[in-house]
Automatic annotation (TrEMBL):
Pfam families tied to this protein: PseudoU_synth_2
Protein family membership: Belongs to the pseudouridine synthase RluA family.
Domain Pseudouridine synthase RsuA/RluA-like: start-end pairs: 19-174
Regions annotated as coiled coil: none
Keywords attached to this entry: Isomerase
Official protein name in the record: Pseudouridine synthase
Record-linked Gene3D superfamilies: Pseudouridine synthase
Signal peptide (UniProt feature, chain positions): none
């Protein structure tokens, strides 16, 4: 059995125990399979575990949350059904703290604040629209943001989503602040990035371990991409 040439500990694999596998997902990789038929993160994780533990059959991998294909950063996978069930509840009830970093082409005004919109997903076009007032078909969506500073010729924002909606950060920054994320042409940025990713990274996640109840914090290094180079100066 050949080892899947995908991950190394400390870079892509941020944490692993009997119940959890925490991955720093590369941009461009699906978390869960879709109509494209492209191999998703969940499948790669199953291959990795099957090789590592020499399992004769397929390893259990449960998906409890997702980040968009062009987004990089932390994804928590469950290795047991017990962990999956409890993680599903935690993500559904927003019982964790999520922190994203984003690069924009212009600074937000004001430099920090809270955005509240009602988001409506167009599943045919795979795009989300944000409404500033309550919408009958919309889901209330809230995030907090702050400008960390300039990163080269871009602006580095830190975002803490209070809710977890499809394309929430992307559409709220574009609609609420007029600051689309670098490379995100779907939501108004002028041009794509060479690797067709967008400059949005799931940087940090804090949660209670679903089995041991220990408070855990995971931090994901930025991708090895030129558009992120200047942002590394903001590592604490």
């Amino acid at each position: 059995m050949n080892r899947p040439n995908i991950w190394s500990e400390g870079r892509e694999i941020l944490f692993e125990d009997n119940h959890l596998l925490v991955i720093n997902k590369p941009a461009g990789l699906l978390v869960q399979g879709d109509a494209t038929g492209d191999e998703p993160l969940s499948k790669k994780a199953a291959e990795y575990l099957r090789f590592k533990y020499k399992k004769p059959g397929e390893a259990f991998v449960g998906v409890c949350h997702r980040i968009d294909r062009p987004v990089s950063g932390i994804v928590v996978l469950a290795k047991t059904s017990k962990a999956l069930s409890r993680l599903n509840e935690m993500f559904r009830d927003s019982l964790m703290t999520k922190t994203y970093w984003a690069l924009t082409g212009r600074p937000p005004v004001p430099e920090s604040g809270t955005l509240v919109h009602w988001l409506v997903k167009d599943t045919v076009r795979n795009v989300t629209k944000a409404y500033p007032e309550k919408h009958s078909q919309g889901l209330r969506s809230e995030l907090k943001y702050e400008l960390l500073g300039m990163a080269g010729n871009r602006y580095l924002l830190q975002i803490n989503p209070v809710t977890g909606r499809p394309h929430q950060i992307r559409t709220q920054l574009a609609t609420g602040l007029g600051t689309p994320i670098v490379g995100d042409v779907k939501y108004g940025f002028i041009a794509p990035l060479p690797d067709v990713s967008i400059a949005l990274h799931a940087r940090q996640l804090q949660l209670q371990h679903p089995v041991t109840k220990e408070l855990m914090k995971f931090v994901a290094p930025l991708p090895d991409a030129p558009h992120w180079d200047a942002a590394r100066a903001f590592y604490s």
